[in-house]
Amino acid sequence: MEIHLPSLPMMKILSHLDAYSLLQVAQVNKNWNELASSDVLWRKLCQKRWLYCDMLTLQLHGKETWKQFFFYRTWQEHAKSRAKPEDFTYKEIPVEFEFWAHPCYISRHGLTRNGQGKSAVCMVTSVNRISTWDIHKGAMTWESPVQKSYIELMTTLPEMHIAVTVDIRATIKLWDCHNKDALATKRIFSPCQILKAVYTKDDPIVLVGDISGNLYIFRIPDLHLISRHNVFPYGIDELQCSPQNKWVLLIIRKPQALTKVVYMNSLLRTSEFSDPVSTSLKFPLCQGFFWTPRREDRITLMSRNELSSSTKFGTFDMKLEEIRNKVAVQGHLVASFSLQDYKERAEWMGVSEKDTIVCSTGSSLLLFDINGLRLQTFQYCPEQILRLWVDPVHVIVTCNDGSFDIYAWEESSSLLRKCYRLQNKKYLPPSSFINNVLCDDVSIIGVMTNCPSCCYLMTYTLNS
Question: F-box domain: which residues (predicted)?
Fold first, then answer.
């Protein structure tokens, strides 16, 4: 006997399910299949998984339904997991940049299934200008005019193909990376220390922190000042937004280190909020942090005590609460543990969407649940781990010989699966140093600094 329930209550129930559960529901009967395939449900899943879906139209991606788009994007995300080392093309792109160079993707995802679209990065060069590079061709595609003042910071907004720079005179400029002239320019009075561009549900914005602890919010593309608040007595050292940009994490690394979480809407909607709505997390000596992917309100912090060489992890859930008719933020500690059995200190960390904490010492890759139960250990010898890249799908380990180990998070467990190694076949002199790593769906980039010789980008791109 087929089960028929009214459509509205059924849709309400189905709206709480994940993609796998919706697919199971669709097998019950024809009526349930139709409801479980609804564009309303699948668009909600897409928006929860990828914030930029709020600004997408399916026609731009050749898809007829949001269900099709969900599986298409998931297929894209796992492209590196399905690959083999021989599926990558290796290039070295000589670029003139400073030691602190930090390239940012200016393209949104990289290649699509039919091979259209390419990975591109934007970076600051040592001659006071920024440039964009086609990673697949290894060629420069655009560069700005030489600027009068030294460019200190740069960020990008791939969703709009926009770059933002700040120079030593605290001049903010917004570039579309096609034209020679900046789209907008804004000057503030105090030197900048932190810069971040994000796409929110209200507006695309730029967050700027100065050395006096002021946080500025500017609108893109005109750099109109939305709000300015003094959040710390000192300059902001770290700034990171949660997966859907509901929260902003701010850190200063002075002896009296402070960690603060701010409700994003209180920065954007000045007519509703006279002051930022925030809370300070009681977790001293914070050295690392990571928002749980695809869970908007959970963050894990890592602290190190240099005297005792101990490392501690704490996981907090952020909640909005109404206290005396005012909105307040509370950070609730849900789990914590210490690493005491390792002589080497933890350097890098990340978190999976299943709350698995991955961290690296010089010779080990370690996995724990949020309560400290050890799940996996990967030993590295004679290589040493230099850094980690952690995203919702992959963990990429950078070794001191220039090679990359690619891992994938298991779908059915909280563990990691080692996929393959991209071996660097070029001899690296002792003076060489990989000072940054980034990746998108189909490319991995390492910033190689060779002193005193030239620097270059090590790029691996998946063949279409």
Answer: 1-45
47 and 174 inside one domain: no
Q: Do residue 275 and residue 162 come from a single domain?
A: yes
pLDDT average, residue stretch 365-387: 93
Residue 163, domain member (yes or no): yes
Going from the C-alpha of 234 to that of each of 193, 257, 269, 424, 425, the distances in angstroms are: 10, 10, 25, 42, 45
Question: What pTM, to 2 d.p., does this model score?
Answer: 0.89
- Quick one: 154 and 262 in the same domain? yes
CATH assignment of the domain containing 186: 2.130.10.10
Q: 173-187, 301-315, 411-425: which range is least confident on average?
A: 301-315
| 158 in the same domain as 274 | yes
Domain of 68: which CATH number?
Answer: 1.20.1280
Can you give the residue range of the structural domain that contains 261? 147-282
